[in-house]
# Entry
Amino acid sequence: MTAFRKMHGLGNDFVVFDARRDAVALGAAVARAVADRRRGIGCDQVIVIEPPKEPGTVAWMGIVNADGSLAGACGNATRCVADLLLRETGAETVAIGSPGGVLRASRAPGGLVAVDMGAPRFGWAEIPLARAVDTLHLPLAREGVADPAACSMGNPHATFFVADVAALDIARLGPSLETDPLFPERANIGFAEVLAPDLIRLRVWERGAGLTLACGTGACAALVNAHRRGLAGRAATLMLDGGELRIEWGEDGRVTMTGPAEESFRGELDLGALAA
# Structure
């Protein structure tokens, strides 16, 4: 039997395995079975904490989407893993290795967790896109939405700025936009309604997971893209379906995300039975 924790950040939920002492056999098929909300535990992403792979880090965080595909970054999951490691170590800050780079986290007031998500990347090949285009104005449209901005926060994001996010049928728009040929590795698709220079309403269709209650990297991308467009300042509250995140794009070019991390329950699972 393999121990796990069910955790979430604003309802963006994860099954977290700790493989620092004992290996966890987690292929794509097993991850899909774990993430299944009817036959498994249910989650948006499966997270595996592994021994550190880089100097100065305390652990490595692997991320598998609900469809079994690998993710490069997940902001809400990073806060959850950071919360565990901060409690475990008693340290003021921890550095966590991830496919998207080293992420540094610290405890914030009110029991929240702040994570330095690194600097966004804007080059078309860095995001990546299929061809050279202006990443501030992508040639991409569907019924009711057009002209998104794109960046990478360790994973690809496109943000549409809309007048009324509640009026959009994101479950219909999301799959087509996620898999548009412009995105060779698919993309996370954000729909942002700028309510004030420091307040943004956001919903995100996540690559490999669908419409989630919150997307941390999507919130970072939305603030960055809104500022690039002249729609917002360098710091804002992002209102997601599951709650609020505070995002700041510092003058040093790095993005800080602050929000909650919660544990729902713990249990044990027979991964071998799922793999059968």
Notes: The CA atoms of residues 34 and 40 lie 5 Å apart. The chain has two domains: 2-114+261-275, 141-253.
